[in-house]
């Protein structure tokens, strides 16, 4: 590091940046899942820390502090910038929080990143309280933005890749650039979160405490309900297996981690890297159990055997539908036979299966949904959930629904399918009936009780136990 960089870092230390999630949406009827530490925001925080800023973090999705307390926090911390994560479901929360920040400190710069900011930055910039939107990967963009602003260089700030803002002649949107070598990204700033407030357990994993990790970015598939390609591009980048092991060892040493949930949408997409990672896990004899999410067409017997030896206990599969017609309609590009074959292989290698189905997809009929229920029983997963489909902005199905007019508007930017047969409200009854039909059989109850132990079983039944509402998260 040059002396110049040093003095720059010293100057930045005096600059506080608060990064935060917003409180959950008021009408939070579609999501009853677990509050996991916000990993994307932790990456943003660690990048800012590495650049020298004094970073504070508030996971208000977990804490649910009222705006009066957020304002008090701004007064106490006096940050130069607040960086907020915004999903389409928390858009309204984000706007009201930005207003509160400006009320507490009008000169505080408000920057919004995350999914909604990546897809529809102009909707955020239409609010004068929001100064910048960051599209795509946040680490480099916010660091360059905050560094330029700390130096008072507005021109530089407005030209950072991935930044959208109001310029002299209208809105500016600089296309994002991906970080080529992901290993450059520091470990997520877990030390800035009150980890003790999270329950640090993962469904189906006996090992505790358990934490989340995200090891790759990007998806090559083209499912109509998902818009992550717009955020991460259509290639998949990832950390090197060595970097992943390094982070696991760091988690074990600092936080006593025994279990990991890899929250990537397709953990096994980079097959060779996955194998290398598993071999390293075995070689290092890590005392670790883990869960991951992937697609049925991204595993084979050799890989499953290796994953099982490396400590993989459960795989979550987005099965989405048992009807080939529906699978085709949503661009899933998988067939029910593939699902059956993969579930059999998982069982053979001692890996539990969990799966999610969506109901209420465009052009899906009630009869198609019954096909999914029947199929769920046939593949016999260890856990299964039926989520009502919600369309998120900029995804193919969202745009098609807007055109067809066959939808109910659930919130500013969230749509659900409406047909002559059903709408969002009536689907709730179907969802409940399917849940009961699958889970409330003596066989499933016994199976679950055995797996969870009677105490956890009772606790989970009382608290809901639904993980994610639309199967796409
Ligand atoms: C794992 C996951 C979850 C997990 C955990 C999320 C967590 N704790 O972080 C759970 C199951 C809890 C979950 C819940 C939901 N999820 Co989810 N989830 C994902 C998934 C698969 C990975 C997210 C992730 O961790 N990525 C890795 C990290 C590194 O990336 P990141 O979080 O996006 O953060 C980066 C950038 O977004 C940006 N960034 C993020 N915040 C900020 C803030 C600032 C200031 C800046 C500058 C940048 C920035 O920089 C980060 C680092 O590069 C994504 C799909 C995907 N591949 O992205 C869907 C996804 C994010 N989820 C989605 C949805 C819809 C939901 C739910 C609303 C589902 C529901 N119906 O309940 C809930 C809402 C929860 C919430 N807190 O708002 C959508 C969001 C769409 C949208 N337009 O809002 C996605 C994109 C999936 C999809 N449908 O396409 N989810």
Task: Walk me through what this model shows.
The protein is α/β, with parallel strands linked by helices. It folds into two domains: 3-173, Cobalamin-binding domain (Rossmann fold); 199-463, TIM Barrel, CATH 3.20.20. The protein contains 20 helices and 17 strands. The strands form four sheets. A seven-stranded mixed beta sheet has the order 2-1-3-4-5-6-7, sandwiched between helices. Strands 8-11-12-13-14-15 form a six-stranded parallel beta sheet. Helix 2 (39-51) crosses helix 8 (138-150), helix 12 runs parallel beside helix 13 (301-309) and helix 19 (442-452) crosses helix 20. The two termini are 40 Å apart. Residues 1-7 and 464-473 have low confidence and may be disordered. Cobalamin (B12) binds next to helix 2, strand 3, strand 4, helix 6 and helix 8.
Distance between the termini: 40 Å
Total discrete domains: 2
Q: Say what oligomer this is.
A: single chain
Bin the strand percentage.
Answer: 15-25%
- Strand ordering within the main sheet: 2-1-3-4-5-6-7
Second-tier CATH architecture of the largest domain? Alpha-Beta Barrel
Mean pLDDT: 91
Q: Total number of β-strand segments? A: 17
Poorly predicted runs: 1-7, 464-473
Q: Which molecules are bound in this entry?
A: cobalamin
**Computed CA radius of gyration, to the nearest angstrom:** 23 Å
Structural class comes to: alpha/beta
Shape: globular
Query: What top-tier CATH class of the largest domain fits best?
Result: Alpha Beta
The CATH superfamily of the largest domain is known as Aldolase class I
Number of helices: 20
Q: The biggest beta sheet, please? A: 7 strands, mixed
Question: Helical percent range?
Answer: 40-55%
User: Any idea of the CATH topology of the largest domain?
Assistant: TIM Barrel
């Amino acid at each position: 590091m040059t002396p110049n960089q040093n003095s720059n870092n010293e100057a930045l230390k005096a600059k506080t940046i608060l990064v935060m999630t917003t409180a959950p949406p008021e009408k939070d009827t579609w999501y009853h899942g677990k509050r996991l530490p916000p990993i994307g925001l932790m990456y943003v925080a660690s990048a800012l820390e590495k650049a020298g800023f004094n970073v504070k973090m508030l996971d208000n999705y977990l804490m649910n502090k009222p705006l009066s307390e957020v304002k008090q926090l701004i007064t106490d911390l006096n940050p130069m910038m607040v960086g907020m994560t915004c999903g389409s479901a928390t858009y309204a929360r984000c706007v009201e929080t930005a207003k509160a920040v400006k009320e507490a400190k009008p000169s505080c710069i408000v920057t919004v990143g995350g999914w909604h900011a990546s897809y529809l930055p102009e909707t955020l910039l239409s609010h004068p309280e929001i100064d910048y939107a960051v599209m795509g990967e946040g680490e480099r963009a916010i660091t360059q933005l905050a560094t330029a602003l700390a130096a008072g260089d507005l021109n530089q700030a407005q030209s950072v890749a991935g930044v959208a803002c109001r310029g002299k002649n209208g809105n500016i949107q600089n296309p994002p650039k991906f970080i080529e070598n992901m290993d450059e990204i520091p470990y997520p700033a877990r030390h800035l979160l009150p980890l003790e407030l999270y329950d640090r357990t993962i469904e189906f994993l006996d090992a505790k405490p358990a934490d989340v990790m995200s090891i790759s970015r990007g998806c090559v598939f083209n499912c109509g309900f998902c818009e992550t390609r717009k955020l991460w591009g259509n290639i998949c980048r990832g950390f090197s297996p060595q970097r992943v092991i390094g982070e696991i060892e760091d988690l074990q040493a600092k936080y006593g981690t025994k279990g990991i949930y890899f929250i990537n949408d397709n953990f096994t997409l980079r097959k060779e890297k996955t194998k290398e990672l598993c071999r390293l896990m075995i070689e290092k004899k890590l005392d670790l159990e883990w869960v991951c999410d992937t697609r049925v067409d991204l595993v084979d017997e050799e890989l499953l055997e290796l994953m099982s030896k490396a400590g993989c206990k459960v795989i979550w599969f987005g099965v989405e539908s048992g009807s080939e017609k529906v699978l085709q309609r949503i661009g899933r590009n998988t067939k029910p036979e593939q699902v059956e074959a993969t579930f059999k292989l998982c069982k053979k290698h001692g890996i539990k299966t969990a799966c999610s189905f969506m109901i209420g997809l465009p052009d899906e009929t009630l009869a198609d949904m019954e096909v999914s229920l029947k199929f769920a029983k046939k593949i016999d997963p260890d856990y299964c959930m039926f989520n009502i489909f919600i369309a998120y902005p900029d995804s193919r199905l969202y745009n098609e629904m807007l055109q067809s007019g066959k939808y109910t508007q659930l919130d500013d930017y969230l749509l659900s399918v409406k047909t002559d047969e059903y709408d969002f409200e009536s689907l709730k009854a179907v969802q409940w009936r399917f849940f009961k039909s699958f889970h409330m059989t003596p066989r499933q109850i016994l199976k679950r009780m055995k797996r969870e132990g009677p105490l956890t079983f009772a606790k989970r039944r009382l608290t809901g136990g639904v993980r994610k509402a639309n199967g796409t998260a």
